[in-house]
Each structure stands twice: as structure tokens, then as C-alpha cells.
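Quick one, C-alpha cells below. Sequence please?
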């Protein structure tokens, strides 16, 4: 059974490759391991973000997934482990399925999660197909999550990682049974310090490499700068559509330059002087209106979710008691989840939650098991 390891050049995926090269199969043999790096985005593609355009001195992008340095590091690790290694270009698919939707959603006043789209559409879809083409039946990644299988039904189950600080199950809610059946997450039972210790013990070339937290295709860290540069490359301009900044009671407080400048929960950059802190509480893109209010106004109990993927089979009309996360760093909170037709669901929390944001994901848990999740469409 050949295993393809998705190697990003970081310590996590490199440690996965090292672990698998020493993992015994029944009978004492080692599984053939192949390293694959997905080339998803050309970091030098938008010169305005690299300092090449006059007036924009941002420096080179480095230390992020998909950079040339990361490809170099992944190749170094593969050579060190003496395993075959290939770079696979998935740039066109990544742009169509991740980057374009990201730009479109932001311009519509939502706050998308490109990492979840990348996992579902690229890493566990196109990557699985690529792995098959080289004879790999399974794929392994550096995700902190766990997979199990129900002995009675044969269905695969997804669980949060042992290391809750690194848990990435929130980003994996969209995986299908076929994808889960082929995935291996060797780090799910480990903590980050343990992974780093393994990398050092095995003397991996990237053992001391720092982590990257930013979205891989945004070199400056600024969503607005990326969107402006990307639209310019496409021959479009970011239309300035001034609209009203209003209070929760409907009073007009000022003007905003465009809804894509804001996200729910934002406090800075409102351009308003007030006696107490104001936060963005809602974004109405069709009406080009941004509502601001007190911190208390950010707390809501209900949201509607679309494109729900049920990892645990659920019948329409059934209401479940679950723990629900509405962002990655949000601990699951008790809620009632009603499964609706057309892959939709409603969520009602036992207690109001802060800054439930359209475009983010609502992921449903039973203890540490992910039972499903989808995209937040509306709040209230």
C-alpha cells in the first residue's frame, strides 16, 4: 500500500513523512512512501504586493505554504528520508475553487475561510486523484485531527485532535466518506511539542523551522490589498461604493468606502468618534450598509447554515443536541441543530455567542467527534 504524503515544507508534514517511513506493516515490511508538494499559488504573481510597484514596498513573500523556499525544504526532507518526491501544479484549480470564491465573498461582505475550501476542493479531492495516478491508495497530511471507523456500519468518523490548541478538525468538516477512507492523520494523537521533538530526534532539516499562520496566497497579510491587486491583474478595478454606517437603531452615523472593508466584530478603522467602543455588528451587502453597535449587540443565538455536510448520517427534520463552533478558536458551545432540506440547517445556541459571521463555518460536534458542518448564511 503506497502512501502519498502532502509535503508543504513545514515541520508537521515533514514529521508525518518521517513517521510513515518507519511504520511497520503486518509482516514487518515498511509501506512505500512518496512525497508530493502541491504548487497552488505563484507568490511572485502579483508584483504590487512584492514591492515591484511604485509606492508599495512590501518585501518578498516567504515562510508561507507554496513559496519557493517551502518547495525547496520539502525536497530536502524527501531526499533526507530517501523517498521519491514530486511537485504537482494545481494552480488553476486552486485559483478557480479557492481564490476566486474568496474574492467574491469578501466583495459581498462575507468573511470566507479559504483553508476549508482548499481542504475540501484541493487537498482531499484533486490531490487524492493525483495520488491515485502514481499508484498511492492513501494520502497522509500534517493535519491535527483523528479518523476512526465504526465497526458496525463501516462508516468513517472524524474527531478533534488530542492537542486542542492545534486541532484542525474545524477546517475538515467538508470531507466525504470517500475522502476520509483514504486519509491518514498521523499527528492527531500527538501534541505540537511532541511533533517538534520527533523532528529533532530524527534530525529533519526543518526541525527548527517556525510555523506560518497566514493565508498562503496573501503575502502582505492584508485581504484588501490582495483583492485590489488581484482585480487589477484581471483588468478590473475595486469599485468604491460608499454606503451608510448606521447604528443598531437605524440612525445614520457616517459613510463607509465599501462593505469589503469590514467584518463582523471589527472595531478599528470605522472612522467614527464615539464615547464608547463601537463594533461592526452586521453587513448588508445588497443595501450597501454596515451596522455598528456595542459589544453586547454582537451576541446572537441563532444562525442558518447552508451546504451542510453530514459526516454522521442525519435525517431531515431531526433536531440534534450538539456542541457548535462558529470559528476556529471558538470552543464548541451547546446548541440545538435542526437538519433541513436542501443541505441546510438552523442552529440555536443555549447562550448567545459573540460575532457569528456569515461566510465562516458552523461545525457540529458530539463530544470530540465532528458530526457535520456548513457555511453560515445568515444570523439572527
Amino acid at each position: 500500500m503506497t502512501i502519498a504524503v502532502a509535503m508543504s515544507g513545514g515541520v508537521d508534514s515533514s514529521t508525518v513523512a518521517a513517521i510513515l517511513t518507519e511504520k511497520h506493516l503486518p509482516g514487518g515490511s515498511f509501506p512505500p512512501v512518496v512525497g508530493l508538494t502541491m504548487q497552488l499559488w505563484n507568490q511572485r504573481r502579483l508584483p504590487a504586493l512584492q514591492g515591484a510597484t511604485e509606492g508599495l514596498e512590501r518585501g518578498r513573500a516567504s515562510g508561507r505554504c507554496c513559496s519557493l523556499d517551502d518547495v525547496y525544504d520539502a525536497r530536502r526532507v524527501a531526499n533526507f528520508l530517501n523517498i521519491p518526491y514530486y511537485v504537482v501544479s494545481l494552480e488553476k484549480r486552486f485559483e478557480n475553487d479557492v481564490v476566486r470564491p474568496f474574492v467574491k465573498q469578501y466583495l459581498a461582505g462575507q468573511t470566507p475561510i479559504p483553508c476549508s475550501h482548499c481542504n475540501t476542493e484541493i487537498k482531499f479531492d484533486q490531490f487524492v486523484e493525483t495520488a491515485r495516478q502514481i499508484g498511492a491508495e492513501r494520502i497522509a497530511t500534517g493535519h491535527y485531527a483523528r479518523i476512526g471507523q465504526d465497526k458496525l456500519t463501516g462508516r468513517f468518523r472524524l474527531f478533534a485532535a488530542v492537542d486542542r490548541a492545534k486541532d484542525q478538525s474545524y477546517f475538515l468538516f467538508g470531507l466525504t466518506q470517500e475522502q476520509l477512507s483514504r486519509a491518514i492523520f498521523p499527528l492527531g494523537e500527538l501534541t505540537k511539542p511532541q511533533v517538534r521533538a520527533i523532528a529533532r530526534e530524527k534530525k529533519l532539516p526543518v526541525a527548527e523551522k517556525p510555523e506560518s499562520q497566514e493565508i498562503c496566497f496573501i503575502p502582505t497579510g492584508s485581504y484588501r490589498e490582495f483583492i485590489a491587486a488581484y482585480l487589477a491583474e484581471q483588468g478590473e478595478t475595486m469599485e468604491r461604493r460608499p454606503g451608510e454606517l448606521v447604528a443598531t437603531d437605524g440612525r445614520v452615523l457616517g459613510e463607509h468606502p465599501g462593505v469589503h472593508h469590514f467584518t463582523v466584530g471589527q472595531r478599528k478603522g470605522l472612522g467614527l468618534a464615539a464615547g464608547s467602543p463601537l463594533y461592526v455588528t452586521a453587513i448588508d451587502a445588497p443595501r450597501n450598509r454596515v451596522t455598528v453597535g456595542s459589544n453586547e449587540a454582537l451576541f446572537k443565538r441563532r444562525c442558518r447554515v447552508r451546504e451542510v455536510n453530514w459526516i454522521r448520517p442525519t435525517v431531515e427534520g431531526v433536531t440534534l443536541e450538539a456542541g457548535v463552533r462558529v470559528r476556529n478558536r471558538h470552543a464548541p458551545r451547546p446548541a440545538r441543530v435542526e437538519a433541513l432540506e436542501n443541505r441546510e440547517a438552523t442552529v440555536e445556541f443555549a447562550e448567545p455567542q459573540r460575532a457569528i459571521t456569515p461566510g465562516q463555518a458552523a461545525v457540529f460536534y458530539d463530544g470530540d467527534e465532528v458530526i457535520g458542518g456548513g457555511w453560515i448564511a445568515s444570523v439572527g
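The longest strand covers residues 299-310. Confidence is low (pLDDT under 50) at residues 24-29, 52-63.
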